[in-house]
Design a protein that fits this description.
The complex is a heterotrimer of chains A (513), B (349) and C (315). Chain B has 13 helices and 2 strands. Chain B is mostly helical and 349 residues long. In chain B, strands 1-2 form a two-stranded antiparallel ribbon. The chains are: A alpha/beta (513), B mainly alpha (349), C mainly alpha (315).
């Protein structure tokens, strides 16, 4: 496609042949992209395809090894976020970059203008923020401490940060990952307003239906390379999916569940709030053998408390936890492991593994104190190594060997080692908290397949995820959690995403207690 | 600039940077001696001969290394668990106090059981001194760096009180020192006529014991896990707080052995100058050894050599003996940087 | 009890408290600035020694008093630059580097002292800062003698605290500092240099610590002797925690602490005090610091990114 002269003038941003390596990994391989005025371009790709790296180069957080960034006809000096900001580029990061101890206004003001000015000019700033939030439909309270805001509000602050600086180009990195369907609609409304005012948007995502809904054009990245640029009006989801993955996606076939007895039961459990994160509020839940129970909800609504409770990290402040009808006398991570609970933690880097431990040492992390891995306080390194080797083989962990540090592994292989660690003893209950976050499609399919196999073998699975698609695909029963309260269970297919979204937003709950 | 991890650092890189750190330290030593108006080569030569130029010098170095091995091990054990015990000085004095209490006639035992009892009691005392800050850390979240540091000052004042009051030597001619240990309470020399006592042997033994603990026992595994990632360790079911307490008992006990060995092996009494900062120097010893228990022995001898050498040198040349402390500080800072650079590459951007 | 009451009623007691608090205020503000930017500076103890020595030496060698203060500040900033270089861009352990800097600054000062005065047994004296009685204010009965008949460095200490608070809470620079200590990624995404801000904070903070040290030789005592800082640096770290990382509260903490210190000195001289070993009184400051830490431990004001290096390339 040869751009005509007028089209060329319309181009606000051009990435030209960007290449970036991290050691041996080529994160971006000669990637080019153009963005026109008033256009929404989606950058589509799996996790690890190089989307975030590309945007970090554009924004000056990383230095490219080759290639250039041209904004409004001028090349940006590499590695200089200030220049990118000054050129009118605003970025909304996937992980919000807000300081919790500062107010909304302070966060927005941060870094605007010279550091050496005498005063902050809070009052004028506040007025401007109020104007912007009205114009773009981004309601926030300018004086509130960011630490007390919900996820949705934080995202609005991030967008306001860019708008306050008169950004002409907005980059949003996986902006819907943490939103309810309704919040996503509100975000899209804001984005349409922005486009109508002449802003241009790069929308990074791996969710096909969102890309189809908001983008005009779609650039597909795979393994760091552009594999296609398509007009969203002349394509469909399946074609995009095939382009993104390089093959047709075959979701794992889900057989009907064969439910058995309730293995774990929570009755009217409450836990205290931790900072801004709500605790559980009179929550009752039974996990049934041979069934996947899905827990949908916007992050920060009590999932952490529920997961910590079942993991053994916390005990109920009131209410009871029963395993097969018996209340355990003592509740700790170790007693949870010994009771046959497989725990796949939300953050495999911080909670699931010890980066500087070897694969072997990580493989026995939960059971090092038991035979055969140790006897009377003395470690049996041989037994540990044998176990690690069998996990590596059975779970197809691609690694240099059992003595390599786990930090050198990709997220998918790390997760496979964790799966092996917790599934190999044959657990009766499985807690899977965001088990596929950040994984590529191959690893996702693998993890989901393992969870389904465990279900079919009679385990009770609790799947916690912020990805409603994942929940709806795998779960036999779906509960929604909102501010620590639990919705009734809905059978597979009983509710539409929009209906679940209303529950996620807190509607439908009895306002008891 | 940005740091990029290197997957497989070359041997040249792994040796080159530490060697460069050592070289830079020697350059600093030369510069300091030029500043003092002395010939750098002569100064370095004097330090070297003063540390290892004769049997007497070498034994003096080993004697000086003995408490440093203990405090170095204490720090190495604690830092592995990311327990920042900067209070080895206080634990050392706690050990010394108990050694004097038991060794001046409080218990009537033959020499060997008495020495063993003194050692165990000293370890217990040191362990208890560190237990306070660790419980404050695990129960209240109080940073142990500051509390252990402050305990050092409190302990020195306590020792000062003891030496002027209850433990004062009536024959001390007004000097603040304790009554002397009984003969049975003294650690014997390793060989007749050799100015080296069994404290050194005990230090070597302790290093091996710590090494075995760290590599072969579940406690060692727990300590490393807790130090590297307490959050993951806790999630996996490791009782992190209990591990920290056990680490503290071990660390405090080892530091106390330094006081025990100095009193029972070398000085024979307690005084306020028992330790010229062995507890603090132990941090340098441990860091230079990369927290490896057997490495601690080597680095303690190296550090002791610099002190002994500098003492002897400053008697001959007009270079103040504080050059030793400067060199160790410089070596420490250069070495931590060098170790980082063996594993990371500095890149632009 | 009435003994204590009598002491509390004397102007000289309050004057002493303000005087004792002054070096602590300088150093506490220095540490607070570092920690607010996310860097724990354990070099404080040694940097105070270096400040005490450099300030004193400059004046001893003939410089005017204020130049001595300046020299101390420069020395502190140099050690701060060393600390900052190792801990900020290289991200080395702030514990290890801090203790290393303390050892280096202390031993360099002692080394230099011995070079200049090889033989001296009793340290030579200089003419220290004298009191500036503020016209009018110093004539207020009681209060005037306590607050407005101090040396200029004391007034400077309080001015320094006020300035720190002003900059921290009312200017873009202070906002940026608070942000890098809380969430460096937030600052970086707004185009700020985390490395630059943190290094700047450590260097300036270290300069203030050194001035705190110089107060000891140029205002409180008139000579330099070994061990004169005597753990004041560590106490200041406790004061930062006690003050919940806020300048105003930290100053109050320093004053409270200094009042206790002044009180114990006076109690030692009473008949009641003679019954207690003097070491018990000398222990009080350290014990109080530990108690302060325990008291404040459950509060969550600690900068979230304290002691966390920021390496934007980390993946």
């Amino acid at each position: 496609m040869t751009p005509t002269t007028t089209e060329a003038q319309d181009i606000v941003l051009r990435l030209d042949q960007i290449t970036k390596r991290f050691g041996a990994l080529v994160a971006n391989d000669a990637v080019s992209l153009t963005l026109r005025k008033g256009e929404v371009v989606a950058l589509l790709g799996e996790n690890g395809a190089g989307k975030t790296t590309l945007m970090n180069i554009l924004f000056g957080h990383y230095l490219a090894d080759a290639g250039s960034v041209i904004a409004f006809g001028t090349a940006l000096p590499p590695g200089n976020p200030r220049a990118a900001l000054a050129a009118g580029i605003g970025m909304v990061h996937q992980h919000f970059t807000l300081a919790d101890n500062l107010t909304v206004t302070e966060n927005i003001l941060l870094g605007t203008g010279s550091l050496w000015r005498r005063s902050l000019g809070l009052r004028q700033a506040r007025t401007r923020i109020e104007d912007l939030s009205r114009d773009f439909g981004l309601s926030v309270h300018p004086g509130a401490k960011v630490g007390s805001l919900t996820v949705g509000e934080r995202q609005r602050v991030e967008i306001l940060k860019a708008l306050y600086r008169d950004a002409r180009i907005l980059i949003l990195d996986e902006p819907t990952a943490v939103l309810t369907p309704q919040e996503t609609d509100a975000l899209f409304a804001t984005l349409r307003k922005a486009v109508a005012r002449g802003l241009s948007i790069v929308f990074i995502s791996h969710k096909l239906h969102e890309v189809m809904a908001i983008a005009d054009r779609c650039v597909v990245l795979r393994h760091g390379r552009v594999v296609g640029t398509v007009d969203t009006h002349s394509t469909d989801r399946h074609a995009l999916a095939a382009l993104m993955v390089g093959a047709d996606i075959v979701p794992p076939a889900v057989k009907p569940a064969q439910p058995g007895p309730v293995l774990l039961r929570l009755t009217a459990v409450s836990t205290p709030n931790v900072g801004a994160a709500p605790g559980l509020k009179f929550l009752s839940l039974g996990l049934t053998a041979g069934q996947i129970t899905g827990l949908a909800g916007v992050s920060g609504n009590g999932q952490a408390a529920l997961s910590d409770l079942i993991s053994g990290l916390i005990t109920p402040a009131s209410g009871t936890l029963e395993l097969a009808g018996v209340e355990p006398a003592h509740w700790s991570p170790r007693s949870a492991v010994r009771a046959g609970i497989a725990r796949i933690p939300e953050d495999r880097h911080k909670t699931g593994t010890i980066a500087d431990f070897t694969l072997t040492e990580n493989a026995i992390l939960e059971r090092y104190a038991d035979a055969p891995f140790s006897r009377a306080g003395w470690m049996d390194h041989g037994a540990a190594r044998t176990f690690a080797q069998s996990v590596i083989q059975t779970y197809d962990v691609r690694c240099p060997g059992p003595d390599a540090r786990i930090r050198s592994l990709s997220g998918g292989n790390m997760q496979k080692l964790i799966l092996g660690r917790v599934l190999e003893p044959g657990p009766r209950i499985i807690l899977a908290n965001q088990p596929v976050r950040g994984l590529d499609i191959g690893a996702i399919t693998y993890v989901h397949g393992r969870l389904l196999a465990a279900r079919d073998a009679g385990a009770a699975v609790l799947l916690i995820s912020e990805d409603l698609d994942e929940i709806m695909q795998l779960s036999d029963v779906i509960h929604v959690i909102s501010e620590g309260r639990l919705s009734p269970g809905f059978a597979r297919g009983a509710k539409t995403p929009a209906e679940l979204g209303l529950w996620m937003a807190g509607q439908g709950f009895h306002h008891a207690a | 600039m940005r740091l990029e991890p290197i997957a497989n650092p070359t041997l040249a890189r792994r040796l080159g940077y530490p060697a460069a750190a050592l070289g830079l330290t020697i350059i600093v030593a030369s510069a300091l001696s030029l500043l003092a108006g002395a010939n750098p080569f002569a100064t370095l030569g004097l330090i070297l001969t003063g540390a290892a130029g004769s049997t007497f010098a070498a034994l003096e170095t080993l004697n000086r290394a003995t408490p440093l091995i203990f405090t170095g091990l204490a720090i190495a054990v604690a830092f592995r668990a990311k327990l920042w015990n900067i209070g080895a000085e206080a634990q050392l004095y706690a050990g010394a106090i108990v050694t004097v209490l038991l060794g001046t006639g409080a218990v009537d035992l033959p020499s060997v059981p008495l020495l063993a009892l003194m050692a165990l009691a000293a370890m217990l005392a040191g362990a208890l001194v560190l237990l306070g800050p660790v419980i404050l850390k695990t129960r209240f979240g109080v940073d142990e760096v500051v509390t252990t540091l402050l305990f050092n000052f409190i302990m020195l004042l306590f020792v000062s009180y003891l030496l002027e009051g209850p433990m004062k030597d009536p024959m001390g001619m007004g000097w603040p020192k304790s009554t002397a240990l009984l003969k049975e309470a003294r650690l014997p020399r390793i060989a007749e006529g050799l100015r080296l006592h069994w404290g050194f042997g005990l230090a070597l033994l302790s290093a091996v014991a710590v090494w075995v603990t760290q590599t072969r026992t579940t406690l060692g595994y727990e300590i490393r896990a807790t130090g590297l990632n307490p959050q993951a360790a806790r999630f996996a079911g490791i009782p992190v707080n209990t591990v920290l307490v056990k680490t503290a008992l071990l660390s405090g006990g080892l530091a106390a052995l330094a006081g025990y060995s100095e009193v029972a092996g070398l000085k024979g009494h307690l005084s306020l100058d028992l330790s010229p900062g062995f507890g603090y120097t132990g941090i340098i010893v441990a860091m230079l050894a990369l927290l490896h228990p057997l490495g601690v022995v080597i680095s303690a001898i190296f550090v002791a050599g610099i002190f002994v050498g500098a003492d002897s040198m400053s008697r001959a040349a007009a270079v103040p003996t504080y050059i030793a402390d400067i060199l160790l500080a410089v070596a420490l800072l250069f070495m931590v940087l060098a170790i980082l650079l063996t594993r990371y590459r500095v890149v632009r951007g | 009890m009435s003994v204590i009451f009598d002491i509390l009623l004397t102007a000289s007691f309050w004057a002493a408290a303000v005087r004792i608090a002054s070096p602590l205020i300088f150093a506490t503000m220095g540490e607070l600035i570092c920690e607010r930017a996310g860097v724990l500076n354990l070099g404080i103890e040694g940097i105070m020694v270096a400040g005490a020595f450099t300030g004193w030496m400059a004046v001893y060698l003939g410089a005017p008093l204020w130049w001595g203060v300046g020299a101390a500040m420069v020395a502190g900033m140099l050690f701060g630059a060393l600390h900052a270089t190792l801990t900020v861009p290289f991200g080395l352990s702030q514990h290890v580097v801090g203790l290393g800097v303390t050892l280096l600054a202390t031993s360099s000062s002692y080394f230099a002292y011995r070079l200049i005065l090889p033989q001296v047994t009793s340290p030579p004296k200089i003419d220290p800062f004298t009191e500036w009685r503020i016209p009018g204010l110093s004539d207020i009965p009681g209060l005037g003698d306590a607050l407005f008949a101090q040396t200029p460095l004391t007034y400077a200490a309080f001015a320094c605290a006020a300035l720190t608070a002003l900059v921290l809470y009312r200017t873009p620079l202070g906002l940026a500092l608070r942000a890098v200590g809380e969430n460096p990624a937030a600052a970086a995404s707004q185009g700020l240099s985390v490395t630059g801000l943190r290094m700047g904070a450590v260097i300036v903070g270290s300069g203030l610590m050194a001035v705190g040290g110089a107060f000891l030789t140029l205002s409180a005592f008139s000579s330099f002797f070994f061990e004169m800082v005597n753990g004041r640096g560590w106490i200041c770290i406790a004061l930062v925690v006690f003050g919940a990382w806020r300048p105003g509260k930290a100053v109050l903490g320093a004053l409270l602490f200094a009042a206790f210190d002044a009180l114990q000195v006076r109690l030692q001289q009473t008949p009641m005090g003679a019954l207690v070993p003097y070491q018990v009184f000398l222990m009080l400051p350290y014990v109080l610091s530990i108690l302060a830490l325990i008291l404040m431990s459950r509060r969550a004001e600690v900068p979230a990114a304290l002691m966390q290096p920021f390496n934007k390339g980390e993946r």
